[in-house]
Amino acid sequence: MSFYARGRSARAGAGAGHETCAALHMQSALSPGGPEAALLGQLAWVLFIGAALIFVFVMALAAVAVFSRPRAIDGERWIVGGGLVFPVTVLSVLLVYAYRTGASIADVGVPGALQIEVIGRLWWWEVRYRNPDGSQTVLANELRVPVGRPVELFLTSDDVIHSFWLPALAGKLDMIPGHVNRLVFSADRPGIHRGQCAEYCGRQHAFMAFYVIAEDPADFERWLARESRPAVPPSDPFLREGLEAFMRGGCGTCHTIRGTQADGRLGPDLTHIGSRRSLGAGVLDNHVGTIAGWIADTQTIKPGSLMPETRVFSGRELRAVAAYLDSLE
Ligand code: CUA
Questions:
Q1: Most buried by CB count within 10 Å: which residue of 50, 120, 303, 305?
Q2: Beta sheet of 136-140, edge-to-edge order
């Protein structure tokens, strides 16, 4: 567990990223968390084991050729059989298998699917849940999905080409400006999975990560209902001071906090930032200390990020802003 992680229910599994084994499985195609990912994992194993067997067979033939006594063989039969018939057969079978696997997980327009738009930005992820009433619930760098229900992602980009890569659940698909790609997956058990951008998109490409939290349908519905509500106006005087400093500092030009006058669209929606696992798209664990550090020194933590470092706050104001943002759950 991270030193700072607190056991708050809203921040699912905060600090779990530091548990090495869990972290390995969080982002591995070999630890599938759902049926689509299981098919992709199976495909990977078939290709790997098949290639290993063929490699061993070819090496054995090479060893025989090198170490056994010379003798007459039917060279033409070996060339036609081993160089033509064998590879054509194996590759054809694999092609059909891989194609059918791809086709079976590319089913789009699944009835009853949870629909989420994910937009690649420099260098973070905007997430928009499409609600049945036509409204959208907006957040960033984190998706929650209910176990057992198909999820249909609409992937696009606002700037350059990114690639949405979620190996333990969904595989990988490009995010292209002006074009929407669809990706369907589902989770078959609760868990936290990590994904990241898989297409070089500039200076902070390597620090463009996100988390997907699969949870019980009832927990998910509760979370979505809370996430859809505007922020609660702070009653605590220190938190109120934080909100006032946030507005005075101009943060609302780039960020939205629903329920306040902050309605900027350039950066992540912060309405419920306190409930998210990470800051800066997976760069830092999210807690009051890292929020303050991020605001004051963004360009050291994530150089080139479009968020300028904000040095307009006094120490007290910075602590108040951080405490206010941290309270938005
Ligand atoms: Cu976005 Cu690489």
A1: 120
A2: 136-140, 124-130, 114-121, 151-157, 181-185
